[in-house]
Predict the 3D structure of the following.
Amino acid sequence: MSKANEMVEILNNSMSPGVTSVIIHTKDYIYLIYSLDPEKSKWKEVSYTFDGSSLDIRELDAPKALMYLIEELTRGLPGYIPDIPFIKDQNELEELIKKVKGE
């Protein structure tokens, strides 16, 4: 099975009834994480590049899955969406604090 066909199968599985999933896509890749069991204790993390050069899959327990999702949101996406509303460094944190203080 090609990487593209395997990714299509994974995408379809991630949207099955009862499955919780987060799918992020950019112009270069898809990042996907979805639950494997009803208790949501096991998750599958998938990264696929559109040029077909890479399909990385791993199973994770819930705490690790959450940490990798947070890492993707805060470190991966800002390169594609520069004004994404996440604090990415100390300067942005200081600007947010000034806004809270009304400065």
Summary: The longest helix spans residues 62-76. The radius of gyration is 17 Å. The longest strand covers residues 42-49.
